[in-house]
Design goal:
Blueprint lengths: L1 H20 L6 E3 L15 E7 L3 E2 L7 E5 L5 E9 L3 H16 L2 E6 L8 E14 L5 E13 L4 E13 L5 H28 L2
Parallel strand pairs: 1-5, 2-6, 2-7, 3-7, 4-7
Antiparallel strand pairs: 4-5, 7-8, 8-9
Length: about 200
């Protein structure tokens, strides 16, 4: 009986050791590269510059983890799927690039720039995740709050919240990434239109 027990223990140990030596699936990294708005007409540069402050967000959007939200409102990272960089940094670069392309301002400056600017754009990111629903439904959700500040006068010119929810193909990480890119593209288009009208009334 004792021998049978020992053999059983050894069998379990060998099984566990075999599982431990199996290679883990490779990690897939995804980028934020929203489609360009080619239909947008060229703008005339306004005679002032804008600085883009570092985007504020909770800790989960300051790492490269790619989060999904299930029906229980739990935020969990995908095990083998990540962003190439933290969402706050990817979104920061994409936003600055789109502002440059829009031609709305004389210059678009990062917050670290020593050059003077008349306006500052401040953003708080609230959601940047793949929401999983029932019966296979899911969506990429992005939500942020934007503040436009007059630096010289030290006052808030305007604020606006932007949100987009784009249906994803299935519940896979790849489907979530495509939907989030589409959501970001939609928000950037509306954000630039809002800046255009808000800065014109400055």
């Amino acid at each position: 009986m004792k021998q049978v027990f020992i053999i059983g223990i050894l069998s379990v140990m060998l099984f566990v050791a075999g599982c431990a030596t199996q290679p883990a699936p490779p990690v897939t990294e995804y980028a934020l590269a929203p489609a360009l708005d080619t239909a947008r007409p060229a703008k005339v540069n306004r005679p002032f510059a804008i600085k883009v402050a570092p985007i504020e967000a909770s800790r989960i959007y300051q790492t490269s983890d790619f989060y999904y939200v299930d029906a229980g409102y739990q935020h969990n990272p995908y095990a083998y799927s990540r962003w190439v960089d933290a969402p706050v940094r990817m979104l920061q670069l994409v936003l600055q690039d789109r502002l440059e392309q829009s031609g709305l301002f004389k210059a678009v400056l990062p917050s670290s720039s020593m050059l003077p600017a008349e306006l500052r754009l401040e953003i708080t990111l609230y959601d940047f995740s793949h929401h999983l629903g029932e019966a296979g439904a899911s969506a990429g959700v992005v939500r942020l709050q934007v503040y436009l500040v007059d630096i010289k006068k030290g006052r808030l010119l305007a604020s606006q919240q932007f949100a987009a929810r784009v249906p994803a193909t299935g519940k896979s990480a790849a489907g979530g990434v495509s939907a989030i890119n589409a959501a970001v593209s939609d928000i950037l288009s509306r954000l630039i239109d809002w800046l255009d009208s808000t800065a014109a009334a400055r």
